[in-house]
Specification:
The structure holds two protein chains of two kinds.
Chain A (H helix, E strand, L loop, with lengths): L3 E10 L2 E11 L4 E5 L6 H9 L6 E6 L2 E2 L10 E4 L11 H11 L4 H15 L14 H13 L5 E5 L7 H18 L2 E6 L2 H7 L2 E6 L2 E6 L1 H6 L4 H6 L6 E10 L2 E6 L2 E4 L2 H9 L4 E6 L4 E3 L8 E10 L3 E8 L2 E8 L9 E6 L4 E5 L7
Parallel strand pairs in A: 3-8, 3-9, 6-7, 7-8
Antiparallel strand pairs in A: 1-2, 1-4, 4-5, 9-10, 11-12, 11-14, 12-13, 14-20, 15-19, 16-17, 16-19, 17-18
Helix pairs in contact in A: 2-3, 2-4, 3-4
Chain B lengths: L1 H31 L2 E2 L10 E2 L3 H8 L1 H32 L6 H8 L7 H11 L6 H8 L11 H29 L3 H9 L4 H30 L2 H6 L11 H10 L4 H42 L1
Antiparallel strand pairs in B: 1-2
The chains are: A alpha+beta, B mainly alpha.
Amino acid sequence: MPKIRLEKLVKRYGSLQVIHEIDLETDNNEFTVLVGPSGCGKSTTLRMIAGLETVSDGEIYIDDRPVSRLEPKERDIAMVFQDYALYPHMNVARNMSFALRLEKRPRKEIAQKVGEVAEMLGLEKFLDRKPAELSGGQRQRVAMGRALTRDASTFLFDEPLSNLDAKLRGQMRAELALMSQQVKKSMIYVTHDQVEAMTLGQRIVVMQDGHIRQQGTAEELFKRPNSRFVAGFIGSPPMNFLDGSLVQEGDSTRVIGDGFNLPLPPELAARANAHGSQDVVLGMRPSDLLPVGKHKDDALDLYVLVSEYIGAQSVLLTECGPNKISVEMKSSAPVALGETLKFAPAPDGMHLFDRETELAI
Amino acid sequence: MSRRLTPYLFMAPAVLVLGVALLYPIGYMIYASFLDWNPSQRIGQAEFVGLRNYTWLWSDGAFRESLAVTLKFAFFVVSLEMIIGVGLALLLDRNIRGMTALRTIFILPMMIAPIVVGLVWRYMYHPTVGIFNKTLNALGLESVPWLSDSFWALTSIIIADIWQWTPFIFILSLAALQSLPRSALEAARIDGASGWDQIWHIKLPLMMPVLIVTCLLRLIDAFKVLEVVLVMTNGGPGLSTEIMALRISRTASEFRELGVAAAMSNYLLIFLMVLTVIMFTYTKLSEARTARLRQAAEEG
């Protein structure tokens, strides 16, 4: 039984439709991430699941129970907001126990629950502080704590880390991953940051313009993106895209464009031949371009413009005909600016997309 | 040297004007309250009597009566206006069509000069041709002595004041409500708070700073109310609606006791100042505490 199921979910604001009949199923205790650029509808979708936005059409099932007409409190969910949404006038303990107090649970039980969660999040010392008296990271923890004190079966996160600075964000991301392993709950997490999505999500759902473009594990999305959009969105630095055409030369199929002429590996060639159109976009990840010897055929001649040192790896920005191509390689490799180097794509490092539909071939 | 003085030199004229304009009348009033002074004398001829005006007032039944009337009036108008104003704001804090027009209509009474409000209400309270009694009579009910009975007179004034000043509280409460953090309210909904829970546990506590200031402003105004009462009852029947401001103005103009009137004004001033100081000290202290702990948290 899926934990949460979205069935042809639609959201309209007046005549403007922002969510277009999306379908989604998540498993019990799964960490699902909705990811996409801003305006893709991921937050709206989450807020519909939470019950903070009305559903225009379609249905949301939690444990097979239709919930789209239920109040948020009847959906057995807890939520962490982007701006934490703590109650400014309550101290940390009262923030975390608000839901339990509304339920009129016994005092002893409330105190015990708050104590447990505070200990888990390292908040014991701050229980009588007001939110305004805490740092950003501490407030973030309180927001998590408030969700955790409730025994909700599903946790919703709306960009919970985006208000933190880079260092704290990394740290909280790790803590969140750890926490999700400990508490064994279903989580739905919204972010625009693909790194967050890749590191946290067991199921990653990529959204664009109110549609789900692809879902799968981080590896599936990275290795087999189903469209140019997903290919470009997942992975950093982003995938290189080159316009080209498919050409048959004897037994082999080649993709040819301005400044490049590369053979396709057999499997891809078969798919490309089965595909109707000749106009394609060749996609190659910066990490899939490997340096090869000077006299190697079937390689790209890349003129090095800029080298960005980022530690063990460097990102080279290069020119190939009229195209700009970035390449990731070991920093220890000797590279001079203004040099022309030869690179060949790794065997499974080539992706083809239809230029019209932008879907993967 | 000159660099350090420059800013003060630039400020000096403004400070001087403000200081004189603010402090001179107050100083004059305080000085006058120590005198036995009637308006036919120049101030220099008046006899200095120390605190006698202040102590004498407490033996004066009319003063005590006016104090009681003022307290009663202020208590009822401010508490009722707060309840109705905040209640309306909570009720109308949503985006329904026509709300803007409705809000504009709501705040009209506040824009009318109090003296006009007094006149209008006096006609409406008129024993025979006023709309209230006419309506009551049409319904077969007896007339109410709106302004001629000591209980009803004060009640009628309180009603008129509520009519005029509830909008003030309504607007400020509505503004406070609409600036509340939306996400905290959403979090409360997720936490299972009903509409009533949200009002009680989130909205009202978060509005409290604004409500306290609003309440204080209304309290200050209520203690100084004059025109409406002057026009509607002129303090009567008997002393039943003789509020402080009216008593002060009478003491000065009818009884020609400028010193006593000044002493009365000072009692009022002191009372209101104490109220204000208590409130500001409270907010200052809590703000300072918050800032200190916040800083410690960011550093630690």
